[in-house]
Each structure stands twice: as C-alpha cells, then as structure tokens.
Amino acid sequence: MSNDNANNAIHDAVIVGSGPAGYTAAIYLGRAGYQPLVIAGALTPGGQLVNTTEVENFPGFPDGILGPDLMDAMQKQAEKFGAELVYDDVVSVDFSGDVKTLTLDGGDVIQARAVVVTTGSSYRKLGVPGEEEFSGRGVSYCATCDGFFFRGKPIVVVGGGDSAFEEALFLTRFGSSVTLIHRRDEFRASKIMVDRARENEKITLLTNSVVDRVNGDDSGATSLTVRNVVSGETSEVPANGVFVAIGHTPSTGFLGDAIALDADGYITVDGASTRTSVPGVFAAGDVVDRTYRQAISAAGMGCRAALDAQSYLNALGE
Ligand code: NAP
C-alpha cells in the first residue's frame, strides 16, 4: 500500500510533528514496514527539546544528554527504519473520508490512510501591552536560547511552575539579578526547585504579582509595570530580559473542527488509547497530555499511537 512522497500518492501513515512522540511513532511504524512520512515542521523540527540544554531524566542516559542531541538521535533512528521527513507545516486538514488529506504551507497536499498528530504545544503569551512589541528585543520564551544576551543586566522570569524555576536558576549565570514574578503566593513548581531558588542569593521571588505592561525604548525592554493583586499597588521592576514561562498552548489550530478538541484546544482521545474522534486519526504527546508533559511520557504515547495506527491499517488491509 505504501507509496513514495510524490503528490497524489496515498501514504499508509503520516505523522505530523517531530518531537519525542512523533519520532517514536515513526520508529515503530517504520520498523513495521509502513514507510511513514513525518511532517516535521518548517521552523522548529525536533520540538521543545531542541531548545533545552541538559536532559537528565530520559532513561538510558545516566550522565544526561543534550536535548538537541537526543532529538538528532531519535530522527536518525526513525530514518534508519524508513521514515521520510518533510520540513513544512500543515495548515489545514480534511479528515472526512477514508483517505485523509493534509495541506502544507508550501502548497503540497498529502494523502494518507492513517494520521498521527504529535504537534505538541507552543509557549503561552502574557497578552499584555509591550509583550509583542519587545518580543525578540527583551521579551523571550526560551532562557537557554536568549539568556546569554542579558549578561550583567536585570532579568525577570514570569511564572510559578517548574519551567519558570528552571529558567530562573539557569539565568543566574547571566543576569545581575533574577526576579521571579508569580501571580499567586504558592508555587506549582516542585519543592526542590523552589528550595534551590530560595537558596540562590541572585533570585528574588515576587509573589501575588502580575505583569501589566512591558516598558522599553529603542534599545529594547527596560522594565515591567507590576501590580500586586492583594494590595492593588503597582510598581516598576527593572528588566532588560523578560522570560515568560507560563505554560503552553496545544498546537491544534491547523485542525479546525476536523477532530474533537477539549475546551482548551487539547485533542481528546478514547480512554487510554490514542484514538481521536475520527477513525484513522491518532494523537500523542503534549498535544493530548496536559498533565505529564515529559519527553519520556510523550515518547511512550507515540509508541502507543503507532501500535493503534498499525492495528487500524491491518484491519483496513483485511
Ligand atoms: P505549568 O506547570 O503549567 O506552570 C505554569 C505557571 O504559569 C503556573 O505557575 C501558572 O500559575 C502560571 N501562569 C499560567 N498562565 C498565566 C498567566 N496568564 N499569567 C501569569 N501566570 C500564568 O507549566 P511549566 O512550568 O511550563 O511546566 C509544564 C510541565 O513540565 C510540568 O508538568 C512541569 O513539572 C514539567 N517540567 C519539569 C521540569 C523538570 O522536572 N526539571 C522542568 C520544566 C517543566 P498558577 O500556578 O497560578 O496556575
């Protein structure tokens, strides 16, 4: 049933996304002989781990592994078993028939019998004045990418989860100070991360506080207007670097109403399976999972999606 990557060919299996879930699904479907096509994304193939430094908790690497190296290895392993990669984005889909179609940004139309969606999530924005204007000129969503630019400058991190704490600790290497601003007085982050931050003399924790505005000039961001949600008072916090780490939004916009999503835009699946509301369409990783969100849990779910897709394709073949 497999075919090559020419337009109009009908693929057995197309995987959308190239994070741990996508590549794991590709490894399994490749080994099963389906020659999966992986639509890896135009800008950020490899997903979030490409923007990570050391990954210490992926089993099999007792000394840790760099995020980009881990994703490179997963890609090579998928290609070794026959996966083919396309560096483009899916902009729309039609899942109404037995043969699904996916339209890419570059104009290509891909057809497939089974589709595995593993598009993950993107950074959530604060949505305050100045955020967009100073994005790339002070406002960043990736400490490991941009921390270096704020050597010796005041830095703010917004958020109260593990990401915010991880970024704050990392940014102490660069900033003259690191202020972590969180909207409540309790942190979602694990105790060990909070303890480490409290022990670090460069870090100040500003709680019950929200950012109302990013201020700046031609040189970039210079400060934040911050409001205490208990007293209502506002103050100005110096910040040349503003790192927003307030969670993620699932990347499902391209799906329209083709499959069922929950109220927050995550794909819903049938019980412990990876079956979406449309037969032949499967989903795995952070685009489904709002709870665990780990590289290893996404990889595990990618494996399940591949096995679910295989049994669907087997049933079609019979
Ligand atoms: P998260 O756990 O969802 O935390 C998001 C934080 O941003 C929360 O503190 C939330 O506040 C805050 N927030 C959300 N929307 C906001 C808004 N509009 N304005 C201001 N604040 C807002 O996300 P995450 O930190 O990215 O972590 C995601 C997952 O990855 C978690 O499971 C985490 O444990 C895991 N992770 C683990 C590690 C590690 O183990 N080293 C590192 C990074 C991430 P509230 O608390 O008030 O909701």
Automatic annotation (TrEMBL):
Its transmembrane ranges are: none
Q: Name one Pfam family in it.
A: Pyr_redox_2
Q: From which organism does this entry originate? A: Bifidobacterium amazonense
Q: Which PANTHER family match?
A: THIOREDOXIN REDUCTASE 1-RELATED-RELATED
Keyword Flavoprotein attached = yes
Tell me one GO molecular function of this protein.
thioredoxin-disulfide reductase (NADPH) activity
Provide the protein name.
Thioredoxin reductase
Q: Which reaction does it catalyse?
A: [thioredoxin]-dithiol + NADP(+) = [thioredoxin]-disulfide + NADPH + H(+)
Q: In its keyword annotation, does this UniProt entry include NADP?
A: yes
Identify the cofactor(s). Answer: FAD
Q: Which PROSITE patterns match?
A: PYRIDINE_REDOX_2
Q: Which residues form a coiled coil?
A: none
Q: What is its EC number?
A: 1.8.1.9
Summarize subunit and interaction data from the UniProt record for this chain: Homodimer.
Q: Which SUPFAM superfamilies match?
A: FAD/NAD(P)-binding domain
